[in-house]
Specification:
18% of the residues lie in helices and 33% in strands. By secondary structure, the chain is an alpha+beta fold. Strands 4-5-10-6-9-8 form a six-stranded mixed barrel. A five-stranded antiparallel β-sheet has the order 15-14-19-20-29. A four-stranded mixed β-sheet has the order 16-24-17-23. The protein starts with a helix and ends with a helix.
Amino acid sequence: MANFASVSIRVFVFSFFFGAFKCQFSIPLKMYPGKFNLSSGANSSSVRVLALKSDGDGLSLASDPSGTVNFLDMVNNLQGDSGRGYYIEMSIGTPGQKLNILVDTGSSNFAVASAPHPYITRYFNTKLSTTYQSTSRLVAVRYTQGNWEGELGTDLVTIPNGPNRTIAVNIASILSSDSFFLPGINWQGILGLAYPMLAMPDSSVEPFFNSMVKQLGIPNTFSLQMCGNGLSTSSVVDPPAGSLIMGGAEPTLYRGPIWYTPIVEEWYYQVEVLKLEVGNQNLNLDCKEYNSDKAIVDSGTTLLRLPANVFSAVVEAITSSLPIDNFSAGFWEGTKLACWTKGETPWEFFPKISIYLRSTNSSQSFRITILPQLYIQPIGDLEDLDCFRFGVSSSANGLVIGATVMEGFYVVFDRAQRRLGFALSNCAMSNGVAVSEIAGPFSAEDVAADCSGRVLKPPVLWVISYALVAVCALILIILLLLLLLPCRRGDRGEITDESSLVRHRIK
């Protein structure tokens, strides 16, 4: 009975604080300053207009509701790199104020700097826009690294190198931030492309892409090519480094078929990882370990992030195959760089890393593979040395397929059919050598029917916490009434303190 009372008190305290205050949960976003340069391999010399149609597998290839669109207008509309993020230019407000906006598939708020900051060169001045309207609602978002606070409003936005039409969207004006804007970045806001469930302060805030689909009538699909892997550079200007195709997929940006995996839950782009291999070595972990908490695809996260047990197994598998003695542990932990004599490359020393994803045919899987050119990343020059960092890290909040992996593939976010597609990216090349691979199908009969490690999502927890608060409040009211009001029981007289259940419960 005492244990039950103790647990009840703890549940009440947790429920009270969880339900009484706005819940903030961490969204993966981790950017590192650094420079990489690899131009896109897409050929934009031959302009091609595609009619609104399907590729035979339900994927829209054109977005304009009039029936035609030139997706090549969107090719190379991204700049940046994996270290500092990929961004697209937008025109915000009336008259338009041009800002660079980070493309982030791991969050759902569209937010822009609306106050000066030492690391950014411009910001959105809401007072200069005749169409900006404040809702007077405060909003705060916290990421794996950094956070910001601001005010919600609405305004008009145009994407010059996108569907070049104006839409009205929710916009968060960032008024203060901590470790969100970093030195060396060239973007002033963030475009959250995930689902309404992640929107802050709640899911009633319609995300940007939802508004675009609704107002322009484009298919509920976008695709992303990220081409910033490659050699480091000292240039202060970011070259064209990828494409965000809104409304479908552009075939000139990828080669071979698109392999699809189901979206497990529509909050993040959550997928189901079945197993990992280092070289040809299967890690042989329970598949639920790969999905511990969740496994998501997130363009706003720099690295491939793995749950602690999985990370340790990957490092052990790599080190066991390395022909290098006494390799510093700081390299794996992200605190030290590994350097070679200038002109030498370390690719031959490291194995491939493969991730198996469940196919839309649940009894099958397919494998996406990255070569060491993607996860042993050039980070800068040191006199006569070329230095590299480890593009994989340990994670406390799930597996994150970030830019380290995404740079090898053309990724299709087919929200209409609740699936993610992976194809070989045309720009995933290093010195003429492909740095990524896709293979399949493979049988998935040797793994569990459900590896996803599904957990209660924040909105569900809110409902439960509010219900618990209501129940606990009712119990407290009853207890107070029992304490304060005289109790009588027929003609046997008043219950004495010695027999009071309330008194003995308090003791």
